[in-house]
Design a protein that fits this description.
Elements: H1 7-18, H2 20-40, E1 48-49, E2 65-66, H3 71-80, H4 84-98
Antiparallel strand pairs: 1-2
Helix pairs in contact: 1-2
Length: 100
Amino acid sequence: MYSLHYPINWARKSIRQRGLLKTFEIAVSAFVDIEFDLYYRTDTTRWVDMDSLEFVSENKAHAVLYQPTKARALRKLLRQLNLLRMVLSLIWVRAKAAHY
């Protein structure tokens, strides 16, 4: 996981290791994830231990943690499948319902 607590130090190290273009792509991806969470009032950027999630499923016993999907990559896939509007509408409805 990339530490964005110290963005200048992270950027310098990332540019040395990955190059300018890849560092820019990673920074944009992180920004899109934060923007998504702020807009939909969700928290999808953290990895979460399965024991802290409250849902019932026989598959939960085999899981270790919840690891989010990057919003930018998911949007690109959904756009290619012509599903983006439908999925974002469902997320918005669920997020609004969770706050009432």
